[in-house]
Amino acid sequence: MTKSKHSRLQEEQLAPATEKVLRQITTLYEQGLVGDSPGGSMGLQDIAQSPQLQMTMRKPRKKVSCMVVGNHSAGKSSFINWYIGEGIQKTGVAIETRGFTFVTSGKKRETLTGEATIRFYDFLKDFQQFEGIIPNLFTEISPSKEKNFACVDWIDTPGLVDGEMSYPFDVLKAILWMAEHVDMILIFFDPIGQATCKRTMEVVSALNNYPPAVEKLHYFMSKADAVEKEHDRQRVLIQITQNLATRIRNSHAFNLPTFYIPPEDGSPCPIPNAIEEVCQSVDKSINMTVQRNLRVLKEDCENILARCNKVLADDKQMKAENLSRRMYGILYYLLASLSSCLLVSLVVTRILPSICNVYDEACAHGGVRSLVRISPAVAEHFMFLSTISLVLFGFFMLMGKITWRIKPVFSKRDLKKIDEYRVMTKKIMETEQGLYDEYFKTLGAER
Ligand SMILES: Nc1nc2c(ncn2[C@@H]2O[C@H](COP(=O)(O)OP(=O)(O)OP(=O)(O)O)[C@@H](O)[C@H]2O)c(=O)[nH]1
Ligand SMILES: [Mg+2]
User: Fold this and answer.
1) Count of domains in the chain?
2) Domain named Dynamin N-terminal: which ranges (predicted)?
């Protein structure tokens, strides 16, 4: 067994383990640690979006998405078919792929049309903006267990051609949009076709000038066996490289491995084949995704815990503020009632002499007598004094109303929930090391 075949076999056996790690991470976002807490578990996403925490959190994708771009007949669909070991995509010399097709693994063979595809991949919601895309969007689901297919979503794109060919949608813009949302982009050049056609070069330039895409690009010359003579192959290789030189960034480190689909009958072919390299770039992307998802998981847990601490601290402060607001409110209302008492006593003092004339005996009482005595003075300044007390009453009432604005705080139930969130998140965080260990096992690396 050759070294590369051996390593591929190992990777194939380890693929389910990698997939398991990716799936477990997603499960932690969707359901949390199932069966862990007696009151039922919650996923990180629900915890983050709970009414108490109100955070936005996106769960990391379970699979790596890999878009294949290239000129018409570059062998894009054939490569995807070879990778999954199934003739899922139509291939041939005619323009076969006119739209975008997602090829993904699932329990059984199924085809989804545009509308269903948009719903299946929620990140595609904005992809509908491209007029004419929906009828040209598909998902092919296959139960294949080949290679690392369980961890990859392939995206087959329309073949790029010049001339009369008109696309049902803006192909350049659609590829650029997709480039932002995928993890890696393979660009295939066909040595016997229109590898360097204007449209292909336009797409390559645009991708190279689009920051979200540029780091994801990998170039390959496909169908290397279609050119029999070595020196012809070299000539085409130089021609493609020269054409690309002015269009690609980082051109000094440019590398264009050549590959071809190995003959089905297994007959030996003397032409060197870098198809393993294509698979290795996919595997590398899968590994990067696992590492990124594990990192994001840790960061998200830390963010949730920090958010819990923040909302609790804010709540404490709010409760203290509410208390002082209440105290001031009570004070203002007290002052307002004192002002109203003053107003009432002013009125009483003012009208007391006329009452005393009627009820002379009642007015003989000492306290009332002194009021009667000051009554002329009150009568003289009555308007002024009553206006002041009325203004004071209005002012204190208003201040009381303004101050008594109690802000909402957490109920006991809310506080209990936040405590539960903290416990669940900490437990999820504790599983991170176990996930790393499982991931290291997939690499065959021992610590
Ligand atoms: N010799 C050789 N032929 C290949 C190879 N890969 C694909 N082909 C042939 O090239 C032709 C085009 O292949 P497709 O896979 O349909 O190419 P495509 O890039 O998907 O084409 P469009 O969808 O039209 O853009 C088919 O006849 C394939 O059999 C290869 O590695 N070697
Ligand atoms: Mg195709």
Assistant:
1) 1
2) 67-162
- Find all residues with CB under 8 Å of 295, minimum gap 6, and list them: none
Ligand 1: residue whose CA is nearest its atom 2: 223
Q: Which domain holds residue 142?
A: 59-273
CATH of the domain at 228: 3.40.50.300
User: Which ligand approaches the C-alpha of residue 197 most closely?
Assistant: 1
Report the pLDDT value the prediction gives residue 40, as an integer from 0 to 100.
67
Q: Which residues contact 352 (CB under 8 A, 6 or more apart)?
A: 363, 368, 371, 372, 375
Query: Residues 255-306: pLDDT tens digits?
Result: 899 999 999 888 888 899 999 999 999 999 999 999 999 999 999 999 999 9
Q: How far is the CA of 413 from the centre of ligand 2 (A)?
A: 57
Give the number of whichever ligand sits closest to the CA of residue 80: 1
33 vs 303: which has the higher pLDDT: 303
- Residue ID of nearest Cα to ligand 1 atom 5: 223
Burial of 370 (0-12, 13-18, 19+ CB in 10 A): exposed
Place 422 in a pLDDT band, splitting at 50, 70 and 90: very high
Query: Ligand 1, atom 9: nearest CA belongs to which residue?
Result: 75
For ligand 1, pick from 223, 228, 265 the residue to mutate: most ligand atoms within 8 Å of CB: 223
Q: 129 lies in a domain?
A: yes
Ligand 1 atom closest to 68 (CA): 19
What number is the average pLDDT over the span 234-262? Answer: 87
Residue in this structure with the two tokens 């054409």, named with its chain if needed = 243
Predicted local confidence at residue 438, as pLDDT: 82
- Ligand 1, atom nearest to 156 Cα: 20
